[in-house]
Write a structure and sequence with these properties.
The complex is a heterodimer of chains A (109) and B (263). Chain A is elongated. Chain A has 109 residues and is an alpha+beta fold. Chain A is 26% helix and 29% strand. In chain B, 30% of the residues lie in helices and 19% in strands. The chains are: A alpha+beta (109), B alpha/beta (263). Strand 6 of chain A pairs antiparallel with strand 2 of chain B, so a sheet runs across the interface.
């Protein structure tokens, strides 16, 4: 459900940053740890873009997997979501990838 | 022109990176722009604009303003989240009554519709602002900013945001709170942290509520604690029953200790 709000934020940001001009493609990054469902964003995108300068734009979504580094043993690992714990047992981990929800770029005609 | 560096890149690539990188061109420009300025190979009728913009940047900016303002005012704000029916309003009713002469508390009440909960909170003697989100499934930082203006909380007071009952959407929206509290009732079952990890992962405090019903439901507290320790090792866990009063003192102590010091 929050994907609707997320998609609205995408459209609002693009409209604000790229006023005028027809947007033909939008590239998003939805990390594996964000809790945002890419398919739901795809579903909302056509609805939300209707009547805007993004109407008809293609939507490309990159979904980077989660990567973490353990602050105790230094190992880099792919967490077994939802448990973000290092194989060594430490829970003191830094998330390196998978936490981002970003608009990467847009294509303008 | 490249909006970041001002280079005359043929008007094809505008770089609006929000990450504050310097003019070192360590980032990738699209369409071969990085090869050399002026040798652009993008089709004449289209251009790529690199944004690298957080989708929720606007919300996050307003949330940070809320946080700074509250810190300046010496006010502690917490974001109380749970599924519908976990007992948020009941907990706040008892909290307001029990602490009426000890702490100054105001509540920002979030629901899709009605002012029913605001009415309950007001009847418990607590100042309250109701936000109805309509179709929205969560509160955002802008709504809370407006509610804070309406409440105008006094120095040394506590503002409790009762978020829309939902274990999914509110997790994504920073409101400017100092603490995130997730309430989970024993009637919901012990599997919620594993089912809704995004919400539970960022909780500072998880409160297991309705413990007076433990004899009647299948809720494994040990399993719950073990799962929470794996999902969010830093989160504190407490149990209480607003109806029986069991465990309420540790909740009150937690509220008192969360208040910023004088000055």
């Amino acid at each position: 459900m929050h994907e609707l709000g997320i998609t609205e934020a995408v459209v609002a940001t693009v409209t604000e940053r790229v006023p005028g001009g027809r947007v033909t493609a939008v590239r998003l990054e939805i990390g594996a740890l964000t809790g945002v469902v890419a398919d739901s964003v795809r579903f909302c995108f056509d609805l939300v873009t209707e009547g805007t300068n993004l109407e008809g734009a293609a939507l490309e979504i990159e979904e980077p997997a989660a990567r973490c580094r353990c602050r105790d043993c230094g190992a880099e690992f792919a967490p077994d979501w939802p448990i973000v714990v290092c194989p060594c047992g430490s829970a003191d981990v830094a998330v390196l990838a998978g936490n981002d929800l970003r608009i990467l770029s847009v294509q303008v005609a | 022109m490249c909006a970041t560096c001002g280079c005359a890149g043929d008007g094809a690539v505008i770089h609006l990176d929000d990450h504050g990188h310097g003019h070192g061109h360590g980032h990738e420009h699209d369409n071969g722009h990085e090869r050399s300025h002026g040798q652009l190979i993008a089709p004449a009728d289209s251009r790529t604009i690199t944004l690298q913009r957080k989708v929720l940047a606007k919300n996050d900016d307003i949330a940070q303003r809320n946080r700074d303002w509250l810190a300046e005012c010496g006010v502690f704000m917490l974001n109380l989240m749970s599924s519908p029916g976990a007992g948020k309003t009941t907990l706040l009713e008892h909290t307001g009554k029990d602490l009426a002469d000890r702490l100054s508390i105001a509540v920002i009440e979030g629901d899709q519709e009605t002012t029913l909960d605001a009415g309950r909170i007001r009847a418990a003697g607590i100042r309250v602002v109701q936000i109805n989100t309509g179709a929205g499934c969560h509160l955002d930082a802008e709504m809370v900013a407006r509610a804070l203006t309406a409440i105008d909380p006094a120095r040394g007071s506590i503002v409790i945001i009762e978020n829309v009952g939902n274990l999914v959407c509110p997790a994504l929206f920073d409101l400017g709170e100092a603490s995130r509290v997730v309430l989970a009732s024993v009637t919901e079952g012990a599997d919620k942290p594993m089912k809704y990890p995004v919400m539970f992962r960022q909780a500072d405090l998880v409160v297991v509520s309705k413990t007076d019903l433990l004899p009647y439901v299948d809720f494994d507290l040990e399993r719950y604690a073990a799962d929470m320790a794996r999902i969010s090792p830093a989160a504190r866990l407490m149990q209480l029953s607003a109806v029986s009063g069991e465990g309420m003192n540790q909740w009150y102590d937690w509220l008192r200790l969360s208040l910023p010091g004088p000055g």
